[in-house]
């Protein structure tokens, strides 16, 4: 094979976005990935299958909620095999489409595991056997991450699941312990709870979803506690023992009513670790820090000038859309364009029901960094659209710079928050002022109006909330 202009190692949302753009820009590209088609963890075992199941969970919850409107549904019959097949068909459709796009762009797709021989050569242990050596001018590392485990508590048991195993939907357990109150644990816990499992959540920290603002989390927490069997915060798992009928778990915390409890299955979702091992990086100048993340500069360039790294392997936030954007930046740099990865707002979305989303500066970050700010909140109880949906528990908030009224951050909790946050991202990136948001006419009745009215609240002029501005 001729020397490739670009080799991309890893075919997830960062890797395939980079490879596709590079091909569009006329580069000769090789994309190396273990799976049959591009997609990575996100499409095969993460974002996409979990959202398919969360859609089902939301539907099941809405059928129960409909009793408030005088609509009564019978007890749903869940055909687990059919549900699993539908979820898998979504994955196959998405990954198959990416395979076709890769071929259409004439990308050299190699299925296997790559290791560096030096800064311009990799060998690929191919999935179908054999080995291939590829030389390149530039490379992009996009090998992603894997679920983290609890030291000394990693049982060799099919009852102990990580997020990948949980998405397989082998069965619907009667009881499930979710270890970790972050977004993965709450999303998957919500799915199993909707399917009929008694779910218990354990979080070591004082509150669920560490990193998000407390007032937003409070809205979600109320709903989570209503659908889960138990939610324990400030609680640790100190031991796990496999028994005949499940896993006996030892819990340590102030609110724990029983120190040893048995669950049919246990899901560990305490975060993710970068896949930076077994890549031959020691044969290059690439620097890997103590946490296992590859160090990069603003252009996503490593200490080896022709090797770039993107996505989960470069550190938090470990989000698919962040990886995609980084991939495109790295390719633009390789193409000779003057660009850098310098976002002011990377949206984060928790796809529970209600959804929770934020971007830009949070209140917690502003406090910790000593940044002066003001908050404008619009409660969804005053939203006509939220009322028609019988979902008035949400909230929209703006974090504003007091002197200029520039939008520094946006937080939303409620149905569809993941879609609405895009307006917040645009406002932060464009350095919009509160008056810009206030004066932009929003369609009525929509949930998007809550963003406009939050800006009106700042000026003490919200039509649907009486809250005079302080002098």
How many angstroms does the end-to-end distance come to?
A: 71 Å
Domain count: the total is 3
Superfamily (CATH H level) name of the largest domain: FAD/NAD(P)-binding domain
Per CATH, which architecture of the largest domain? Answer: 3-Layer(bba) Sandwich
Radius of gyration, in angstroms, nearest whole number: 24 Å
Can you characterise this structure?
With 471 residues, this protein is of the alpha/beta class. The chain folds into three domains: 4-147 and 273-334, FAD/NAD(P)-binding domain (3-Layer(bba) Sandwich), CATH 3.50.50.60; 160-270, FAD/NAD(P)-binding domain (3-Layer(bba) Sandwich); 348-458, 2-Layer Sandwich (Enolase-like, domain 1), CATH 3.30.390.30. The protein has 13 helices and 21 strands. It has a five-stranded mixed barrel. It is globular, with a radius of gyration of 24 Å.
Please name the defining characteristics of this protein:
alpha/beta; FAD/NAD(P)-binding domain; 3 domains; 5-stranded parallel β-sheet; 471 residues; Enolase-like, domain 1; globular; 32% helix; 21 strands; 13 helices
């Amino acid at each position: 094979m001729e020397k490739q202009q670009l080799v991309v190692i890893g075919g997830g949302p960062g890797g395939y976005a980079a490879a596709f753009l590079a091909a569009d820009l006329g580069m000769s590209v090789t994309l190396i990935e273990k799976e049959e088609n591009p997609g990575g963890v996100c499409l095969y075992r993460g974002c996409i299958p979990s959202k398919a199941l969360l859609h089902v969970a939301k539907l099941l919850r809405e059928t129960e909620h409909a009793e408030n409107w005088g609509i009564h549904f019978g007890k749903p019959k869940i055909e687990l095999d059919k549900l699993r097949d539908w979820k898998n068909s979504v994955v196959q459709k998405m990954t198959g489409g990416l395979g076709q796009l890769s071929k259409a762009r004439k990308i050299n797709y190699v299925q296997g595991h790559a290791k560096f021989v030096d800064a311009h050569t990799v060998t690929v242990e191919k999935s179908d056997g054999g080995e291939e050596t590829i030389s390149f001018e530039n490379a992009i590392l996009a090998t992603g991450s894997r679920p983290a485990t609890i030291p000394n508590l990693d049982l060799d048991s099919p009852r102990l699941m990580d997020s990948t195993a949980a998405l397989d939907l082998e069965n619907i357990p009667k009881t499930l312990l979710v270890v970790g109150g972050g977004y993965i644990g709450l999303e998957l816990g919500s799915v199993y709870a909707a399917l009929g499992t008694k779910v218990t959540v354990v979080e070591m920290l004082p509150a669920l979803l560490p990193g998000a603002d407390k007032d937003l989390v409070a809205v979600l927490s109320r709903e989570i506690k209503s659908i889960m069997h138990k939610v324990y915060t400030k609680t640790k798992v100190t031991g796990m023992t496999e028994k005949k009928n499940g896993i006996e778990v030892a819990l340590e915390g102030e609110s724990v009513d029983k120190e040893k409890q048995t669950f049919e299955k246990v899901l560990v979702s305490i975060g993710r670790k970068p896949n930076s091992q077994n890549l031959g990086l020691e044969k290059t100048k690439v620097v890997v820090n103590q946490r296992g993340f590859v160090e990069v500069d603003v252009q996503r360039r490593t200490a080896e000038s022709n090797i770039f790294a993107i996505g989960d392997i470069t550190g938090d936030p470990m989000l698919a859309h962040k990886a995609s954007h980084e991939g495109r930046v790295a390719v633009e740099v390789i193409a000779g364009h003057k660009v850098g990865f310098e976002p002011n707002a990377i949206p984060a979305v928790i796809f529970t029901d209600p959804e929770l989303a934020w971007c830009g500066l949070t209140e917690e970050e502003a406090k910790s960094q000593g940044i002066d700010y003001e908050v404008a909140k619009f409660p969804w109880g005053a939203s006509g659209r939220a009322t028609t949906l019988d979902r008035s528990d949400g909230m929209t908030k703006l974090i504003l710079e007091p002197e200029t009224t520039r939008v520094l951050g946006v937080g939303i909790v409620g149905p569809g928050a993941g879609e609405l946050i895009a307006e917040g991202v645009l406002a932060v990136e464009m350095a919009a002022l509160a008056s810009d948001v206030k004066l932009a006419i929003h369609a009525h009745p929509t949930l998007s109006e809550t963003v406009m009215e939050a800006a009106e609240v700042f000026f003490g002029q919200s039509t649907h909330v009486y809250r005079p501005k302080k002098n």
